[in-house]
Amino acid sequence: QVQLVESGGGSVQAGGSLRLSCAASGRIFGQYDVGWFRQAPGKVRDLVAAVRWSGTSTYYADSVKGRFSISKDNAKNTVYLQMNSLKPEDTAVYYCAANILSTMTAGYWGQGTQVTVSS
Hints:
The protein is mainly beta. It is built from no helices and 11 strands.
C-alpha cells in the first residue's frame, strides 16, 4: 500500500518561496518515478516536476524551469519541491505523485496541498 502525504503549502506574495514535502510510505523510491503535479481552477492537472526512481534525471515543465527544484531523500522516503520566484499563475493545488505514467496522470496520488501566490 502506497501512501503519499504532502505538507508545506500556504500563501505567499509574488517573488516569495515555498518548499513542499511529500512523505511516502511503502517501497516506492527505488521503484517509481516521483514528482509533483498541479491543478489550477478550471484547468487540467499537469506535471510540474519529476525525478527518476534512480535519481539520475529530472523533468521540469517549461513554466517552472529555473525557479523550481525537485529533490528526494531516499533515507527519509521524502520528495521535495523547492519553489522560488513564485508568480500568481503558480497558484494551484499541488499533488505529490508516484509511478508517473504521463504528464497528466500517475499511479499513486497524495491528497494535495494548496499554494496561493498573491500579487
